[in-house]
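To the team - iron/sulfur cluster complex, inputs and output below.
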Amino acid sequence: MTNERFLELVSECFAALEDNAVSLPGEKKPLQVLDTPLTGFAAAEDPIFEQFRDPEIIGPEFRLPTDYMSGAKSVVAFFFPFTEEVRSRVCKEEEPSSPTWNAAYGGNFKLVDEFLDALVSRLTEEGIAVFQPNRDPGMVRVQVPVSGGEDVHYSVSWSNRHAIYAAGLGTFGMHRHIITEKGCCGTTASFITDVELRPTERKYSDVYEWCLRCGECSARCPGGAIPPDGLRNLKKCSAHGGAVRETYGGFCGKCLTKIPCEGCAPAKARSN
Ligand code: SF4
Ligand code: SF4
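Output:
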């Protein structure tokens, strides 16, 4: 299969999603949730996957594509941006838990699964095998205390964000989300397949290359989880997110909107 044919299948499966809209209380017109995904490809044997086993990156629990699937040829990664309409609504909602964000973010997992099911089914019809590590019941996630217990790191058997980095779609930001050409405000997916696809060029050499280091995500974080000149503290973020869930029944996610990298990769644009 060519990359072009693969991308056609992605477009068809995305366009066929039935529930890519949410209705908000008191509003007649539903909001479209996700835009067509950016799709990138990496070779399954790319040495970058071995590097992810470094405890400073992911850790020893990380499994290589070929550990999951003998005969693996490619890793496919997706970034689905939230629509401009969703993002602009979230920017205006100053509540600790934005109603639009709760509806859009809360519903995105089901949507992405629906998309993956459709795409995997089309690939299977063409005799192509797929393995989805994130939907594997054997997924491993080990919490490791760091900074003397002030923060935590997760050593995991697979990571969509790292698959996206490997597949040329973007770099990390200070908020630890991935920044793509369509920004950071989106959701992710990835899988391993036995079909050979042309790898997407990684147009960066540094893990944080597309981040401006502007500190605006830090200023936006109500939980004090992102230092102005450093990376998101996952322990503090989780504590704040847990409190928001308990008190309001929703999600925080403020560090994904009202910032320069919300819908584009500003540092990349600046270097062009
Ligand atoms: S808001 Fe600024 S510092 Fe934070 S991730 Fe985006 S570009 Fe980087
Ligand atoms: S999710 Fe909320 S608490 Fe966590 S870093 Fe983002 S803004 Fe801060």
